[in-house]
Write a structure and sequence with these properties.
The protein is built from 1 helix and 4 strands; from the N terminus they run ββββα. It is of the alpha+beta class. It has one domain. It has a 4-stranded antiparallel beta sheet, with no helix packed on it. Strand 1 and strand 2 form a beta hairpin. The protein is globular, with a radius of gyration of 12 Å.
């Protein structure tokens, strides 16, 4: 199965939970939308920075796993 990539920047798409709403997008170009949907938006810089260390390939939060 091929990995989904962003049509704008070519990075692997990530999934995030934004206030109970699942979005799919790219950390690199900051474009996010509903999976299989047409709604696309950019996240505010502070939200994007907060996600930087917490998003994995499956969108699972692993921040606690990476702490010493």
């Amino acid at each position: 199965m091929a990995t989904a990539v962003c049509g704008q920047c070519g990075e692997k798409l990530r999934e995030i939970d934004l206030d109970g709403k699942w979005l799919q997008g790219s950390l690199a170009c900051n474009k996010w939308g509903e999976p299989n949907g047409n709604l696309w938006m950019s996240l505010p810089d502070d939200d994007l920075e907060a996600l930087g260390g917490r998003v994995t390939d499956r969108g699972r939060d692993t921040s606690a796993e990476n702490e010493p």
